[in-house]
Amino acid sequence: MRPKSKVLIIxxxxxxxxxxxQADLKTVTSLGSYGMTAxxxxxxxxxxxxxxxxxxxxxxxxxQIVFTSEDIKPxxxxxxxxxxxxxxxxxxxxxxxxxxxxxxxxxxxxxxGGAKLIDDNAIKILKKDLxxxxxxxxPNIPEAEVLTNTKISSVEDxxxxxxxxxxxxAKNVLIKGGHLNESxxxxxxxxxxxxxxxxxxxxxxxxxxxxxxxxxxxxxxxxSCGKSxxxxxxxxxxxxxxxxxxxxxxxxxxxxINHLNSLLIKKNYL
Length: 270
What we know:
It is built from nine helices and nine strands. By secondary structure, it is of the alpha/beta class. The protein has a single domain (6-268), classed as Ribokinase (UDP-N-acetylmuramoyl-L-alanine:D-glutamate ligase, 3-Layer(aba) Sandwich).
């Protein structure tokens, strides 16, 4: 089987393998594409939480992006953990250099255990300079609250926050609704022309580590293969739901999901 497309992942490493670069590569590979990486940080973590974060030199992040892409041109780019203003500036510089048109931004800010993974100045630069350069941003509710300074406790609040992100310059927004206290999961997709609420059954499990990383990488993979951005979101959500449902129950905390579930449900995506 030959890879269907090439995806460059700009994100942090998760030593437990459930999130970050590791989850991204597993997702891209499981969905039939080829993954490349530019690592922004190395984390010491497991399913119970993040112990420490070791940043990579921002210039080396830029060099990873450019040197890799000059040799193997990506069909799409997924961006995850960006922890400082210098990192964001160098990523933007890299995006301009390689001229990629399909960029998915997962604004990783808070770990499952509550640890903050990005500083306030970096959030400002992300909103001011990076947001308008990406194809879609995929925040969860806590991240959308930080980005829009909006308290979100309903689907209506999610729609309001999504509209604010469009006003800030985002082309497409997918706000993930897993943090709402509802019997179902509501994910809100929005751009200037289209609007859709994806509804999913809520799966009762604590094993959801890496769902955001996995979803954004799945969207990037489907988008890189020529699907529309809205269809890529729909297929990505289906993939993540199946991965949560079939999770392997590893670890003592928030365990990983099952990225290999694509082998069982592949026919649904083709």
